[in-house]
Amino acid sequence: MAAVAPDVRSQIAEVHINRPVGADALVLELRLPEAIDPLEAGRFFMLRRDDDLSPAIPRPFSVYRQVAPDRVEFLIKVFGRGTQALAASQPGTRVRLIGPLGQGWPAWQPDSGPKWLVAGGIGSAPFFMGIQQALAQGVAAKDLTLIYGGRSKRFLYDLDQFAGLGVRVIAATDDGSAGFHGNVVQACQDLATREGTQAVQVFTCGPDPMMKAVLRFAQEHALEAWVSLETYMGCGVGICNGCAVGTVEGGTLGDWPVAKCCIDGPVFRAADVELP
Ligand SMILES: Cc1cc2nc3c(=O)[nH]c(=O)nc-3n(C[C@H](O)[C@H](O)[C@H](O)COP(=O)(O)OP(=O)(O)OC[C@H]3O[C@@H](n4cnc5c(N)ncnc54)[C@H](O)[C@@H]3O)c2cc1C
Ligand code: FES
Question: Is 76 close to ligand 1, i.e. is its CB under 6 Å away?
């Protein structure tokens, strides 16, 4: 079992920009009190406003982009009280953040075949820097494909920003309002028919039923896969057991039947975990 990351800290940041995106989300750019080391894609922070509007328990959010050593963006979909409070922030609002936490995407390996990054809705958040870092680590742009699905175009958050990364982006919408008319698994099947799946690696983040279907697809094609899970979390630092994820016997996580998403994940080798 992993330990809490040594670089974690609790600090008060200020909202710099609150930019609405899509039907129900926002990009919250926070200015930290001091510069921090470059963040690894796939890791996360626990966030809450430093006032009574947020619930007492902070909520976990993936790092979307680190735009400067002291400025970090989060892509946030509004669900309940915690996200509503963050969405109501204005420049200057104080936000407590704890992190960076957890294990991000595995090291990106150049020349190891095509990588399909399969995101559903807000599940795109950990992929923006993931793509930037894969490119920086020598993965050829032609080997990276983001397959980004949502109910409609309005749920493909910041699609133009993703499209500007210089890798292939396949949008997929249930209603056909953008890109491929269908869900991400159908888009994967379509791509497999056109290009084959030789040496493809799959990385996925999104709603659990979507990830399950993506992993079934990966299994049917004998593809290596990784998942970024979004369990409920209490503490974010391995204490409360609120983020338990079932482990697969014989996997690399050891013999214990559960792992903790906050410190062993949120990114896991798909073969190691049972999805909820
Ligand atoms: C490691 C990690 C990274 C995450 N990264 C992001 C991110 O980058 N951007 C982002 O928007 N969210 C992300 N999430 C999910 C986010 O933490 C939740 O959406 C948030 O905690 C909801 O808090 P709330 O107080 O607004 O809603 P709550 O009051 O806690 O819930 C309101 C309603 O929404 C439902 N709900 C809550 N969370 C989810 C969910 N994840 N999926 C489906 N239904 C849900 C609840 O069942 C409830 O019905 C991440 C979660 C984890 C564990
Ligand atoms: S959220 Fe508390 S142990 Fe993981």
Answer: yes
Contact (CB, 8 A) for 110 and 271: no
Residue 232 Cα: closest atom of ligand 2: 1
Query: Quick one: which H or E segment has residue 208?
Result: helix 208-220
**What distance in Å separates the CA atoms of residue 206 and residue 230, rounded to the nearest whole number?**
8
**Rounded distance from Cα 79 to ligand 1 centre (Å):** 6
Taking the domains of the chain in order of start, what are their residue ranges? 9-101, 115-228
Distance CA 60, CA 7 (A): 17
Angle at 77 between CA 72 and CA 83, to 5 degrees: 80
Please write the tens of the pLDDT for every residue from 85-117. Answer: 999 999 999 999 999 999 999 999 998 899 999
- CATH for the 115-228 domain, from 3.30.450.20, 3.40.50.80, 3.30.1360.120, 3.30.70.890: 3.40.50.80
**CA R_g for the chain:** 18
